[in-house]
Each structure stands twice: as structure tokens, then as C-alpha cells.
């Protein structure tokens, strides 16, 4: 049984012979020998079981079956050429449907401000944005890519770092007035913690003293939730203390609605990544989206004592 490639090659050679009115002219056009072209047409006729060309020593002409086959060949070849042109145009001009999953907190902090610019820059891309903190199955659910922060699970996905952020410990001024301000991370055991349930171990918070000594504090959280925006909302209502990415609460910290505590202790650094299935050729629509997000999410991160010597993700 012939492969699709063999069939298309045979069609292409036959069409060239017809359009160049002979084997030698077609051979020059295709960069092959005349004997090779003649043999390929003969093999095509044998496979089809019909004679496509009337041959004389001076000319060729199409048989009735050859005329019908040529018309069909020409249409198929033009469709294939159009398919290639379409893909090449998409590579030059990003277009098509782009399905993306991103954390809800990233939307509140950044996406609502920058995605309209992306849509204006690439008018032929149609976006489907799924805002969720859950762990999605990229391939099974048909996502082109997902954006996630923190520790990356082992997977076959390709990851690209979009930005680094830091986790900050925050509480409301009202809460701190009622319960006191922790002076060291170990004081947190006497406070109400609001934990992020998607962490590998939400009860364990990691710190580093100014001296460089690292240690963990085991807590008994009052609240577990799987969304940083909800954590922040609980903190603003005085429910407790939480650790969230700084990009989720910069306006509230600046306005005084929330207070950063334990800033002398280096908290976790958080990577925000684009994750997508491994493909030999990354589609242009995905590539330009990743590049755009990397350019627009990148921003200076404030560390009280300067950047940590080594950013870690845990």
C-alpha cells in the first residue's frame, strides 16, 4: 500500500509533465533525469491500472482518464499548497484560538491591565482565558498553555520562567492590634494562620534568619483555602495572618489596608511560569503570548535587605 507521500509525489510529477508538455521539460523543472520522471509516471499508471498519457516520439497527450485524473490532481495539489501557505502566514501573522489557564490572583494583579494590549497587538488571535488555581490537565483539557506559580510538579510539560516574586507575610492592622505583632517566625504558632491548601505541605512555612540560618515553622492554620485572593480577603477582615505572593497585595500594602510583618526574615521566592506541552515547533500564537507575558510581568521585586543570594522555589 502506497503512503500518502508516494501518492502526492506521483500526482506532483504527473502534473508537472502535463503542465510542461513533456518528460524532459518536467525533469529540468524538478531537477531530475528524464528517465526517472518517465519511470515515475509509468509506475503511477500501473498503480492506477489505466493509461494517463498517449506517448509519441515527439509529443504527449492526455487520455480521457488522464484528463480527469489531472483535474483532480491539480485540485489536491492546490489544496496542499494552500495549507502550507496558511501555516506560513500564521507563523508570520499569529492567529487562531488560544486557550490559557491562569491563577485568579494573577488576573486581579496583572492580566486585567495587560491582556487588552495583547489583544490589540494581535487582532487575529482569539483568547479563551480560564481563571483557576486548580491543577489542570493541559493536554486532556485542550489548553495551549497554563500559567502557574510556586513549586512545579513533575511532568512532561515545558516550563518557561515569566517572573520571580517573593512571598510576603501579611495581616491587617486591626488583627495586629488585637493579637500583637509576631517578632520572629516562631511567634506564628500563637497566631491564626491562613494557609494555601495547594502547597505541598500548607502547615509548614519556611524562613531564613538574617544570619542565614534556615528553618521551618509548623502551624495549625485556622483557615485553609486554595486561592491567594481569598487568603488576602480573610487577612483584610482580621481573620489571621497569611503568606501570599507580593504581586497580589501591593496596592493594599501601599494603602495601609494590610501590613507586612517579619520582613527581616527571607520568605519563599516564587517563580511564575508558563507551562505548555512539548512540541518540536512551538506555534507562533503561543510563542508571542509567552514573550508578551514575560515582558509585561517582569518588574522589580522589593527585598528589604537586597535580593537573596539564591532564589529558591519550594
CATH architecture of the largest domain: 3-Layer(aba) Sandwich
The general outline is: rod-shaped
Give helix and strand order, one letter per element, not per position. Answer: HHHEEHEHEEEHEEEEHEHEEH
The CATH class assignment of the largest domain is Alpha Beta
Strand content: 15-25%
- The multimeric state of the shown protein is single chain
Key phrases:
314 residues; alpha/beta; Arc Repressor Mutant, subunit A; D-Maltodextrin-Binding Protein, domain 2; 9-stranded mixed beta sheet; two-stranded antiparallel ribbon; 24% strand; rod-shaped; disordered C terminus
Task: Please characterize this protein's 3D structure.
- With 314 residues, this protein is of the alpha/beta class.
- The protein is built from nine helices and 13 strands.
- The strands form three sheets. Strands 3, 4, 5, 6, 7, 10, 11, 12 and 13 form a nine-stranded mixed β-sheet that branches. Strands 1-2 form a two-stranded antiparallel sheet.
- The radius of gyration is 32 Å and the shape is rod-shaped.
Amino acid at each position: 500500500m502506497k503512503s500518502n507521500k508516494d501518492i502526492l509525489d506521483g500526482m506532483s510529477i504527473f502534473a508537472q509533465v502535463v503542465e510542461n508538455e513533456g518528460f524532459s521539460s518536467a525533469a529540468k523543472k524538478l531537477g531530475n533525469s528524464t528517465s526517472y520522471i518517465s519511470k515515475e509516471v509509468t509506475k503511477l499508471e500501473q498503480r492506477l491500472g489505466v493509461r494517463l498519457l498517449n506517448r509519441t516520439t515527439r509529443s504527449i497527450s492526455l487520455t480521457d482518464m488522464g484528463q480527469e485524473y489531472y483535474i483532480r490532481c491539480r485540485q489536491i495539489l492546490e489544496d496542499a499548497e494552500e495549507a502550507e501557505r496558511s501555516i506560513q502566514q500564521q507563523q508570520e501573522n499569529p492567529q487562531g484560538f488560544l486557550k490559557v489557564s491562569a491563577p485568579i490572583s494573577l488576573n486581579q494583579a496583572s492580566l486585567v491591565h495587560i491582556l487588552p494590549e495583547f489583544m490589540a497587538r494581535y487582532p487575529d488571535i482569539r483568547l479563551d482565558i480560564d481563571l483557576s488555581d486548580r491543577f489542570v490537565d493541559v493536554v486532556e483539557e485542550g489548553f495551549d498553555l497554563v500559567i502557574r506559580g510556586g513549586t512545579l510538579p513533575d511532568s512532561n510539560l515545558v516550563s518557561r520562567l515569566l517572573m520571580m516574586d517573593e512571598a510576603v507575610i501579611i495581616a491587617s492592622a486591626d488583627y495586629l492590634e488585637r493579637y500583637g505583632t509576631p517578632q520572629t517566625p516562631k511567634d506564628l504558632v500563637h497566631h491564626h494562620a491562613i494557609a494555601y491548601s495547594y502547597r505541598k505541605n500548607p502547615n509548614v512555612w519556611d524562613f531564613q534568619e538574617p544570619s542565614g540560618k534556615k528553618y521551618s515553622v509548623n502551624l495549625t492554620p485556622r483557615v485553609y483555602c486554595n486561592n491567594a485572593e481569598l487568603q488576602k480577603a480573610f487577612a483584610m477582615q482580621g481573620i489571621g495572618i497569611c503568606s501570599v505572593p507580593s504581586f497580589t497585595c501591593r496596592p493594599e500594602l501601599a494603602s495601609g489596608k494590610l501590613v507586612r510583618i517579619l520582613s527581616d526574615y527571607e520568605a519563599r521566592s516564587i517563580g511564575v511560569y508558563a507551562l505548555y506541552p512539548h512540541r518540536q515547533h512551538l506555534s507562533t500564537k503561543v510563542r508571542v503570548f509567552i514573550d508578551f507575558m514575560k515582558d509585561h510581568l517582569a518588574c522589580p521585586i522589593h527585598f528589604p535587605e537586597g535580593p537573596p543570594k539564591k532564589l529558591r522555589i519550594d
